[in-house]
Amino acid sequence: MAKHSFSLFLLPRGSHTLFYLIALSLLLHHLSPVVVSATPHHFEGFDADDIDESDEPISSSNPTPPPLTTTLSVSDPIESHHDPPPSDLTSSQPSDPKPASTSFDYWDEDEFEGIPQSPPSHSPLITQSATATSSKSDPKPDPEPEPETPKTISAYTVEIVCVTFLIVFVINYFTGKKENENLALAWASKFATKDSIFDKNFSLLGVGENDDSPLLLKEGQNVFKFYASGRRYCQGLLATMELKSRHDLISRLYNMVVPCKDEIMFEVYMNDDAMDHVVVAVGKKKLAKTMQKEITDLQRFASLVSPPSGRKWIAEELAVVAESKEVAGDMISETVLDQVFGDKAYEKFGKGFISMHFSDQHLGSHKKMLVFKFALPDAKNMADMTRLVALVPYYIDLVGRYKLSSHARTKTDGARMKVAQEIYKELQNARQEALQRKKAEQRKNIEEAEAKLSAEALRKKEAKERARQMKKAMPKMKMTRTG
């Protein structure tokens, strides 16, 4: 108010008043920045809110450039006790078009410790990373579905192969099963029906006691059995046919690479009093050597027999393993040489012969047995093995009536006695080993039990053992009464 009064007091009178007012306004316009910038130095704690709007520079019509403006830092008049920063720092800050903005141009270092001097600015890196993050967060548009192409037959190759294999496997199962059954029935119809070889030599054929009982017993898709009994010198006969696994496709394919034969094995259970000391085997040379090494009774009693001089002998493809030359000569008679084992007969009728083994020391439930192994021909050519099957009843009678000479009997008895002693020693050794093993186990159990006992229990046990030893060491005295 004093300011305005002072101005009015200096106004001139007359026509120069208007020029004077214009000059005064221009002077105030130029002096206003200096006054405003100097105000904080003279008035400590001056608040920006106390500035009168009338102190703002008055715009003029003179085309002069707009004056420079400064922005004041707002602080609490009560808490601030320090001078504001120099005017040259504040003057370098750009003007804020919005007076109500809460951003500050600078900070008091002593009043606000730990706060940066300049407000954080948005750097281009932050803007770019934010832009990249926003671009990543945006969901990508779903790709357009590709048109489905129709599947061809080549896409189902695995399925076609599996289904084809399954169909072939099922068909082969039933066809192979039928082939094996037809082969077994062809053999039975040839050798086990009325007026056949077994019907003439045995009184009971088949697995049952009645005449209507089946001749064959099927134990598997490729295993068939035939039983016959009711003949002298033997308790019975069991024939086992082991045919190819024609029902199994994999086995059939394997047999194409590694061929095998359909086999039939005859096991004749001889009576105990109908068979003397006979151990002999006949087979192809390689097979005969294998039998002599692997079969126990042949390994203990028999050896390869060299062809005798001055008489007919078996074909060159065959070999004989026997306990003595006498037994070999008696078992290979002139009849069997002419029928099967001779050179000419073997080429024609002995193609299906595999081996035969006679022994009174056979391992198993029956010690005295005759075993024949033949290969089965096709169902249409079953008559080719007629002479081979005829060997079974022939040897039953031959072995049942056979008796060794006294010289050969002495040798066989000595060999059997020696083998019996060896077997007894083996059994004794086995018993001793078993007994020692049992004692070792008991000792181990006792040691384990003692390890678990306490010290007091161990002392009591030791005292008891010492007392027993002392009692055992004392001399025995007998008391007698005198009358």
From TrEMBL:
Pfam families: CCDC47. Residues 1-38 form the signal peptide. Residues 457-468 have a biased composition (Basic and acidic residues). One of its GO terms (biological process) is endoplasmic reticulum calcium ion homeostasis. Residues 88-104 have a biased composition (Polar residues). Residues 46-151, 457-483 are annotated as: Disordered. Residues 469-483 have a biased composition (Basic residues). PANTHER family: ADIPOCYTE-SPECIFIC PROTEIN 4-RELATED (PTHR12883), PAT COMPLEX SUBUNIT CCDC47 (PTHR12883:SF0). This is Coiled-coil domain-containing protein 47.
